[in-house]
Write a sequence for this structure.
């Protein structure tokens, strides 16, 4: 076996950092993720392109035609969803490119090339690129960074361009976007004569780091750093910009720049506030920059913010941002279930942030959250058929919630698509001496540890079962340290190497076991994570969940749906002593482990017309089946609940 050029590690800069696996080097050839990745490749990617066409998203690229009527009207903020249509096909190109890298597809490539050709034609001579402003309002470009998403859109195009270049080697799109970045560099910065602004919807920052990792052009890193450092500087650029437009800053629809995490410099922020997706994209860039610039102050800020999110503001599903009014955070411990906004994009972006944190600090507290969103609050955003979606991932429903084919603001479908099509990169990381396994699920992976090429075969029924086999195929004996994440949910773990038990009391640091040895061809590591059904309780300050319990097994959070129960799960009372069992149901939506038990159901038959009475409802036994939350709303519509009353 020789080291293939496809799997060369990216050149490291600054401090040592773990390098995520090349996503294309990890093949899900069985197990849980096989059907999801195939469905996203075969159904989601083509149908999303179809929707983009049908819904007029690609029409915005017809720069040689006069702009047609608006497909999305202007909102009170002055923003139309159409302002950022570029971001949607940017994200779609990114997701499609990840599939292309492993599964070449000339027809798909031609669709992307057609978009790139139009973008190139439409790009202004000075490099500016945004379909809305070029076609509709060229004189208003860069006049409203607070509301109009110009750099957000360019950031997504840039991420798409990097992914397409890495998949195909074609430079055209990348060059278009480098010209757009050159234009931004010429326009924005702290230097005299430049605008001292930054986009209120973060995204360009992390995209620039991705670009920098391809180009190694220090200007790309410097621009990302400038945007992060500038954020929240007072007096606010947005006030100045509003005055220049002849508007009063007081008329800002969202009232506070906390909406955009621009209320104070990022290093001073302690609480996660504002719009959830924006926050997660910003923090992802901060994690990246903490490494690239060897800047511990950004890492410290990220640590504080991460602890605040996880300790006070995160749903049990990994969903985040409870409120629709700001698409984000409200007060700490405010985690309503039925009205949860918990946008799919936000959960996906928490995956991005957690993953980046783990590359600079191998701590399972980060990868635990990556796993939580992966199996719960992000995966719930896409249907089992791969072409229906949730934007809001509520934790409770009375049957009013339905998955949709396309959304008025379809940011989420392409986000979940790019997450799943690049999933391999989240499973493993390496540095010169270590191979870290973050996630479990059947796959075969090709990895580079230092100068050694390693093939790793992971076999498991995870997340339905906690037994995992890792087999090594190495060209020649190779010494490195294997780091294995012990999930935070696991109370009893066993690991052996070639049948010899590993003493976990001696070798676990920050939730990762470390096994150093010379690895030889055929070596096998066996892992056993015990996976009982667990009852989860919320902090007493989460008033919605007082007296209630959620069920979890391994990383998977469960819910009860009306279609299984034959009634509303809100009427169930789960006895504290009730034993709950787990059973694999091969017939359920492609196969899943379900939980079964008997609860008490409040009887409604003897209430006649009374809304209130002096005697409580009588209770009768009711067997129930709970299914993985991510699978809900794939069958008949009906009520659903994660949190159940406990008696
Ligand atoms: O504003 C752009 C995207 O649309 C945001 O990230 C989502 O929350 C949705 O509002
Ligand atoms: Zn979204």
């Amino acid at each position: 076996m020789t080291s293939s050029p496809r799997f060369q590690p990216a050149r490291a800069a600054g401090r040592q950092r773990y390098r995520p696996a090349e996503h294309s080097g990890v093949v899900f050839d069985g197990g849980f993720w096989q059907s999801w990745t195939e469905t996203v490749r075969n159904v989601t990617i083509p149908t999303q392109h179809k929707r983009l066409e049908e819904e007029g998203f690609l029409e915005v690229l017809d720069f040689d035609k006069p702009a047609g009527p608006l497909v999305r009207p202007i909102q009170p903020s002055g923003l139309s969803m159409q302002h950022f249509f570029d971001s949607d096909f940017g994200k779609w190109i990114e997701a499609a490119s990840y599939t292309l890298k492993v599964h070449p597809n000339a027809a798909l490539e031609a669709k992307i090339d057609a978009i790139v050709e139009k973008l190139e034609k439409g790009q202004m001579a000075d490099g500016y690129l945004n379909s809305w402003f070029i076609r509709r309002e060229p004189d208003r470009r860069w006049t409203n960074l607070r509301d109009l998403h110009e750099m957000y859109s360019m950031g997504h195009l840039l991420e798409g361009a990097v992914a397409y270049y890495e998949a195909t080697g074609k430079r055209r799109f990348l060059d278009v976007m480098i010209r757009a970045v050159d234009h931004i560099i010429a326009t924005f910065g702290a230097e005299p004569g430049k605008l001292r602004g930054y986009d209120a919807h973060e995204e360009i920052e992390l995209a620039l780091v991705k670009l920098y990792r391809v180009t190694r052009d220090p200007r790309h890193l410097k621009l990302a750093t400038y945007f992060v450092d500038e954020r929240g500087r007072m007096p606010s650029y947005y006030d100045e910009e509003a005055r220049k437009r002849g508007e009063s800053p007081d008329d800002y629809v969202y009232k506070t720049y906390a909406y955009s995490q621009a209320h104070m410099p990022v290093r001073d922020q302690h609480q996660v506030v504002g719009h959830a997706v924006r926050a997660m994209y910003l923090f992802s860039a901060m994690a990246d920059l903490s490494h690239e610039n060897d800047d511990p102050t950004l890492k410290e800020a990220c640590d504080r913010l991460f602890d605040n999110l996880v300790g006070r503001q995160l749903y049990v599903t990994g969903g985040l941002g409870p409120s629709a009014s700001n698409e984000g955070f409200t007060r700490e411990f405010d985690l309503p279930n039925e009205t949860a906004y918990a946008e799919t994009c936000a959960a996906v972006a928490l995956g991005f942030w957690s993953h980046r944190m783990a590359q600079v600090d191998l701590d399972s507290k980060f990868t635990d959250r990556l796993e939580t969103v992966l199996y719960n609050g992000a995966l719930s955003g896409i249907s089992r058929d791969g072409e229906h979606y949730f934007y809001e991932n509520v934790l409770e429903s009375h049957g009013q919630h339905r998955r949709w084919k396309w959304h008025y603001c379809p940011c989420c479908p392409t986000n979940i698509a790019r997450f799943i099509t690049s999933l391999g990169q989240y499973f493993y990381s390496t540095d010169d001496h270590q191979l870290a396994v973050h996630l479990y699920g059947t796959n075969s992976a090709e990895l580079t540890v230092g100068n050694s090429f390693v093939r790793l075969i992971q076999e498991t029924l995870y997340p339905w079962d906690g037994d995992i086999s890792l087999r090594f195929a190495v060209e020649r004996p190779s010494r490195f340290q294997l780091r294995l994440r012990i999930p935070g949910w696991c109370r009893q773990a066993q690991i052996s190497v070639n049948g010899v038990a590993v003493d976990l009391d001696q070798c676990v640091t920050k939730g990762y076991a470390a096994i150093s040895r010379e690895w030889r061809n055929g070596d096998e590591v066996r892992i056993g994570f015990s996976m009982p059904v667990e009852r989860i309780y919320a902090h007493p300050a989460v008033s919605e969940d007082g007296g209630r319990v959620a069920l979890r097994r391994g990383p998977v959070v469960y819910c009860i749906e009306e279609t299984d129960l034959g009634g509303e799960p809100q009427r169930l009372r789960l006895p504290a002593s009730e034993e709950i069992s787990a059973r694999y149901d091969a017939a359920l939506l492609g196969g899943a482990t379900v939980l079964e038990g008997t609860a008490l159901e409040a009887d409604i038959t003897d209430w006649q017309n009374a809304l209130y009475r002096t005697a409580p409802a009588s209770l009768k036994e009711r067997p129930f089946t709970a299914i993985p939350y991510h699978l809900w709303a794939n069958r008949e519509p009906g009520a659903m609940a994660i949190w159940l009353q406990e008696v």
